[in-house]
Design brief:
It is a single chain. This protein is of the alpha/beta class. The chain has 4 domains: about 110 residues, no CATH class; about 100 residues, Cobalt-precorrin-4 Transmethylase, domain 1; about 80 residues, Rossmann fold, CATH 3.40.50; about 80 residues, 3-Layer(aba) Sandwich (Cobalt-precorrin-4 Transmethylase, domain 1), CATH 3.40.1010.20. It has 14 helices and 20 strands. Helix 6 links the parallel strand 12 and strand 13. Helix 7 runs parallel beside helix 8 and helix 11 packs parallel to helix 12. The longest helix has 17 residues. The chain is globular, with a radius of gyration of 29 Å. The relative contact order is 0.12. Bound molecules: iron/sulfur cluster (SF4). The site of iron/sulfur cluster (SF4) has 15 residues, from helix 4, helix 7 and helix 11.
Length: about 450
């Protein structure tokens, strides 16, 4: 490839490429760089900032006006992070830039919707990712209960579906049990974010257990809808996975009138006493597309079927799936940090695969198999709603060591949801002495 050098500096320690606004080559370079989305700043606009000013002074023997201010018009444009710029004379229209950190020449080109250096491998870090508001709340409840009341604190089922989180809380004194029958009479027990059935609540009451409910408010919403439809005499179709804790809990609200379906084919086998009095609800962590197909099949079978006032699939599940769809065509591989019993994490893998992108669920960077990375130039990385950020950071570090040093965060939408704590925890915080450190 032939290149024509357009501008350079003789000074060391520079980190901007100066371009002269009157130079026709520079102007051509700027036009191409702007078309590619490469940031170009006007030196005039940043001259007041000390760091840029110092760079500016290093770029050229500073010319000063009579009043000792710097001349602002000699090199009015800068490309941050780049020391030299070239234009490809072979006609590809590409702009070649010199990376100031590595000293390597980097070719920038369009890749999907973004500009990436062609020689380096890219990691797209999706946002939103990881902990949702329900998971943050559930973990906070266990931590605060341990601090305020002291161990032992029993937790029914995994508080959230992530091994790392569960092991960390175990280390602090939480005791995880499968059933409230395992909790000694009168002790404190926390229900997980996935919720429980009335049967479990009754069993706890009979044992005199002191209950703290960490059920996600969005799961509670589905329970309330189930009770309402059942009271109104509807047959209830619950779309979800039969063996998931959340579905078991919701089913328990109205077991005599509820049937679970997991795919469109199962809709044909449903039998109900009155096809005009049927309602459906869904698990909160399903695939949006698959659920749409099941709902369509239900509407065909029961044209008067009623649904929830607002979709039951929660905001966090939806946002993470939308983010995956957003980058699926750009990525050669999607990695999802999450445990294999995490429904929303598994759905993220399925969403990517349904769009033809190779995808894997990993508990940590240790699960990444070398052959997954062969021939891969762009990886997209996300995390399920119960996966902590520290595990994502480890993956980023690991992949940087494998050449994926060009990390670009792709924020598809903002996410600012927070849920309040249950009254038992609010009271514990209020009554803790100021020095006790309960937050
Ligand atoms: Fe709640 Fe959704 Fe998080 Fe589940 S994934 S805990 S429903 S916010």
């Amino acid at each position: 490839m032939q290149t024509c050098r357009l501008a350079s500096s003789r000074q060391r320690g520079r980190d901007c490429c100066p371009l002269h606004h009157r130079d026709p080559f520079d102007r051509s370079l700027v036009a191409q760089a702007q078309a590619l989305g490469i940031p170009i700043v006007s030196a005039d606009a940043v001259l007041d900032r000390y760091d840029i000013k110092r760079i500016w002074e290093n770029l050229t023997p500073p010319r000063r006006n009579r009043d000792h201010s710097l001349q602002k018009t000699r090199h009015p444009l800068l490309i941050p992070g780049v020391s030299s710029a070239y234009i490809d004379q072979a006609g590809s229209g590409r702009v070649l830039l010199m990376d100031t950190n590595s000293g390597e020449r980097v070719t920038y080109q369009e890749q999907g919707k973004r500009i990436v250096p062609t020689q380096s491998k890219t990691l797209l870090l999706l946002k939103p990712r990881g902990f949702c508001a329900g998971v943050v709340r559930a973990i906070d409840i266990v931590r605060i209960a341990l601090e305020a009341f002291g161990p032992p604190i029993y937790v029914r089922k995994e508080i959230v579906h992530n091994r790392f989180v569960v092991e960390e809380l175990q280390g602090k004194g939480a005791i995880f049990v499968d059933s409230v029958d395992e909790v000694p009479n009168g002790e404190r027990v926390i229900y997980s974010a996935h919720g429980v059935s009335p049967e479990v609540r009754d069993a706890s009451q009979q044992r005199g257990l002191r209950v703290i409910d960490a059920t996600c408010p969005l799961v509670t919403k589905v329970h309330v809808e189930a009770v309402k439809f059942a009271k109104e005499g509807y047959s209830l179709i619950l779309i979800g996975h039969r063996d998931h804790d959340e579905v078991i809990g919701t089913l328990g609200e109205a077991p005599l009138v509820t049937q679970v379906v997991g795919n469109p084919a199962e809709v044909a086998a449903l039998t109900v006493p009155d096809p005009n009095r049927v309602a459906y609800l869904t698990q909160t962590t399903l695939s949006l597309d698959e659920t749409r197909d099941i709902i369509e099949a239900l509407r065909e079978r029961f044209p008067n079927i009623k649904g929830p006032a607002a979709q039951d699939i929660c905001y966090a599940t939806e946002n993470r799936q939308v983010a995956v769809k957003h980058v699926a065509s750009e990525a050669d591989l999607l990695l999802v940090v999450g445990s294999d019993n995490s429904s929303n994490s598994k759905r993220l893998v399925e969403v990517a695969r349904s769009l033809g992108t190779s995808a894997h669920l990993i508990d940590s960077y240790r699960n990444i198999e070398p052959n997954w990375l062969e021939g891969v130039k762009t990886i997209a990385l996300t995390a399920g709603a119960s996966a902590p950020e520290c595990l994502v950071e480890e993956v980023v570090k690991f992949l940087a060591g494998k050449g994926f040093g060009n990390v670009q965060e792709v924020e598809v939408m903002p996410e600012n949801v927070r849920f309040g704590l249950p009254p038992e925890i609010v009271e514990a915080i209020a009554s803790a002495p100021a020095s006790a450190g309960v937050e």
